[in-house]
């Protein structure tokens, strides 16, 4: 490999000090869990025995910005996790699923007749500002020490508790029924799947999430994130 070929890699990847602590911005792949990403990076750092953690879980069917911390910086994960988040996504109107997304199949359908663009845009108002929401039954929230999705997969009705969240911005960016695109800025702990489900109910209809991308967390942007493969390949090259 020539010097000209190596130069872009030097520009993309800085000199890392993983033991002291690095903050890594990762573009989480579709269908990967947040823990899959942590495990992949941790394995790439072997034989170093370092703590690696993420600041804010993304559902497997979501993509976008996932913040990873290594070494001593893992002590600051709660600080990064508490920061405001921004998402873009797509919902499907006229149907619902038990998981509020595409993890489960449609269980109910509704006619789209009479749903106007004006009504769809107006339906965001009740979900803007300080609101309360229930987490999805298919979620990683723990109740009495057990995650809700475990109970849901056993067919049990889990006990759901209202959560206080803040949604400064909920805007509709495209309407091509049954698809509706949106942009949301929200506080830590906001479930976009629940927001979409409640949005459908506000329209006396149904809705589920078909696509979700986290574009920002605090001041960190998805456009500055590494692809998992690129970072892993680079780390392996450094050990070669």
What does this structure look like?
Helix 2 runs parallel beside helix 7. By secondary structure, the protein is of the alpha+beta class. The N terminus is likely disordered. The strands form four sheets. Strands 1, 2, 3, 4, 11, 12, 13, 14 and 15 form a nine-stranded mixed β-sheet that branches. Strands 5-6 form a two-stranded antiparallel ribbon. It has a two-stranded antiparallel sheet with strand order 7-10. The radius of gyration is 20 Å and the shape is elongated. Helices cover 25% and strands 31% of the residues. It has two domains: 99 residues, Alpha-Beta Plaits (2-Layer Sandwich); 133 residues, Pseudouridine synthase (2-Layer Sandwich), CATH 3.30.2350.10.
From the structure above, extract its key features:
single chain, 240 residues, alpha+beta, Alpha-Beta Plaits, Pseudouridine synthase, nine-stranded mixed beta sheet, two-stranded antiparallel sheet, 7 helices, 15 strands, elongated
Overall number of strands: 15
Can you tell me the CATH class of the largest domain? Alpha Beta
| Overall domain count | 2
Radius of gyration of CA atoms, rounded to a whole number: 20 Å
β-strand amount: 25-35%
Brief characterization of the structure:
With 240 residues, this protein is an alpha+beta fold. The chain has helices at 3-12, 34-44, 77-81, 117-122, 148-153, 192-202, 228-239; strands spanning 23-28, 52-54, 63-70, 85-93, 95-96, 108-109, 129-133, 142-143, 146-147, 163-167, 169-176, 179-186, 207-217, 220-221, 226-227.
Give the topology, please.
Layout: H1 3-12, E1 23-28, H2 34-44, E2 52-54, E3 63-70, H3 77-81, E4 85-93, E5 95-96, E6 108-109, H4 117-122, E7 129-133, E8 142-143, E9 146-147, H5 148-153, E10 163-167, E11 169-176, E12 179-186, H6 192-202, E13 207-217, E14 220-221, E15 226-227, H7 228-239
Parallel strand pairs: 1-15, 3-13
Antiparallel strand pairs: 1-3, 2-3, 4-12, 4-13, 5-6, 7-10, 8-9, 11-12, 13-14
